[in-house]
Amino acid sequence: MITALHIENLAMQRGERVLFRGLNLSLKAGEAVALTGPNGAGKTSLLRTVAGLIRPLAGEVRFAGALGALDARDARRGGCHLIGHQDGLKPGRTAREELVFQTRWTGGGGEAALAVAEAWGLTRWLGLEVRVLSAGQRRRLA
């Protein structure tokens, strides 16, 4: 089975504090891992780094063997998505507007938004404003 995610010798620093260094991890498609640790240990920083939202101090992130450019657009095009504590959706936009915005951000457009809506079972919500969606619907949309 192909390695879906490979992290090699990753190091993260926040200010003067090194969160971790020498982190190595390989996951095959379909595998899961539990990321645990105390507050401030670097769990969210690691996830943001893998998603290409922040740059590491050192190391590499690879998706299916290709070196991650550590750019959020490239990470999302490669299928890496991060939904954090807050979903980042705009309450006044419709679900359709959010999907179009998100797919344009990754280089797609309206057709890509509809494909995502169909794949994730979101088509019935496209005309609804984000503010009326349940928490679960919002997470799926994000």
CATH superfamily of the largest domain: P-loop containing nucleotide triphosphate hydrolases
Number of strands: 4
Please tally the helical runs, counting DSSP H or I stretches of 4 or more residues. 5
Which strand-content bin applies to the residues? 15-25%
Summarize this structure as a short list of keywords or feature phrases.
2 domains; Rossmann fold; 23% strand; 142 residues; 5 helices; alpha+beta; 30% helix
Plain-language structure description:
20% of the residues are buried. The chain is 30% helix and 23% strand. Helix 3 (95-105) packs across helix 4. With 142 residues, the protein is α+β, with helices and mostly antiparallel strands. The chain is built from 5 helices and 4 strands; from the N terminus they run E-E-H-E-E-H-H-H-H. The longest helix is centred in the last third of the chain and has 11 residues, at 95-105. The protein folds into 2 domains: 3-77, Rossmann fold, CATH 3.40.50; 95-141. The model has no long low-confidence stretch (mean pLDDT 83). A 4-stranded antiparallel β-sheet has the order 2-1-3-4, covered by helices on one side. The protein has helices spanning 43-50, 72-77, 95-105, 110-119, 135-141; strands at residues 3-14, 17-28, 58-63, 66-67.
Quick description:
The protein is an alpha+beta fold.
Topology:
Elements: E1 3-14, E2 17-28, H1 43-50, E3 58-63, E4 66-67, H2 72-77, H3 95-105, H4 110-119, H5 135-141
Antiparallel strand pairs: 1-2, 1-3, 3-4
